[in-house]
Amino acid sequence: MSLPAFRSADPVRTYYSYNGAWAFFSALTFTLSMVYYVRDAGLDPLQMVLVGTTLELACFLFEVPTGIVADLYSRRLSIIIGFVLIGAGFLLQGLVPAFLAILAAQVLWGVGFTFTSGADQAWITDEIGAERAGSVFVRRQQIGLFATIAGTVGAGALGLVSLPLPLTLSGAGMILLALVLAAFMREDNFHRTPKAERETFRQMGQTFKHGLAVARRRPVVRMLVLISLISGLSSEAFDRLWSVKILEFDFPTTFGTSDPAFWFAVITLVGTLLSLVTSLILNRLSPDRLSAAHPNGILALLSLLQVAGVIAFALLDHLWPALAAMWLRTITGTLSWPIESAWLNRHVDSRSRATVISMVSQANAIGQVVGGPPLGAVGRSSLRAALLVSGLILTPIPLLYLRLRPAREDVSLPA
């Protein structure tokens, strides 16, 4: 037999399990990573920006090549390789609190992420079908939020012992997860190119061109690439600078401490809980809208609320109102992802699915690399101005969603 007998795990359960584990380990790493960079590694603001830029450059440079590998060889193999590299990156930055080591760690886990990006969604869509994938994406998001809550609490508890501890444990856990997937993850509905027909560079070029043709000719794909680019232009600055603004406030003393490490864990936990509750409520009250074949209306509303959250956060000068605005941005982003992912997957075929999804992610990485440094430079003189511009950049997105019309989506590519 080409596959061991024990590799028989149900694809949906496997998808839920490894995404839950990924969310848990990510929360262990990212909840206190900013505090770790400043306190243990001694990074200054410029180095903090360079860390983010290095990560996005790695994602940008490797997103499409790794997506093509997933289309030609194996989604499963691509996911396993990705988790090994991500775990190595997490482990390195936790073990070596130095600027160059942290930069190297960003390259490792950034490249690892590109192996999973696209391949992850493409694998489960191939295994269960595009029609069923929408509801699975929504449930995956909810499971991920539960796991994020657990990981956030764990990071806070471990961080009281040692800031590097949650980072190193999450890295070791990711590598272990990859080994478990190598044993139990199945791939029944993917057919890779036979070796005799595998002209590597030519085949990669053809796959890329096909994915590009899909992105150019199908309105939904083309618009989602543009929206991803605009989101990237805004998000890098906000993701790096929101913590700087929060650290300017005086934290209240709770449970005998006002330590920023404690409050960053609380802030992350509250945002995750709010996202989970909102997702569950909307899934119960309006499941048809969340899994609609043409969900441009709800995506436009969510993006409008996201714009409002970012702009309000930039302008507010008090801790709790500012946190409320930031949580609004978190909630809307969390709700949008599974809806948009299912919409995109319905408009690409299996041959180029991972490649097209990777293109959307690459557009976001390009936006972050281009938009991050200029807004970071603005933030050196005026943090409020940088955050405000970050919100204004997002204002075209609701209109772009509303411009899409159902009648135009069904136009198929030539054979």
TrEMBL record:
> How is the protein disposed in the membrane?
Multi-pass membrane protein
Q: Which UniProt keywords apply?
A: Membrane, Transmembrane, Transmembrane helix
- The region annotated as signal peptide is none
Q: Tell me where in this chain the Major facilitator superfamily (MFS) profile domain is found.
A: 1-408
A Pfam family cross-referenced in the UniProt record is: MFS_1
The highest taxon in the source lineage is Bacteria
- Where are its TM segments located? 20-38, 50-73, 79-105, 167-185, 220-242, 262-285, 297-316, 383-402
This protein's GO CC annotations: plasma membrane
Q: Please tell me whether the keyword Transport is annotated for this protein.
A: no
Q: Does the keyword Membrane apply?
A: yes
Protein name, please?
MFS transporter
The subcellular location is:
Cell membrane
In terms of InterPro entries, this protein maps to: MFS, MFS_DHA3_Transporter, MFS_dom, MFS_trans_sf
Among PROSITE patterns, the record links this protein to:
MFS (PS50850)
Organism in which the protein naturally occurs: Kribbella turkmenica
Single annotated GO MF: transmembrane transporter activity
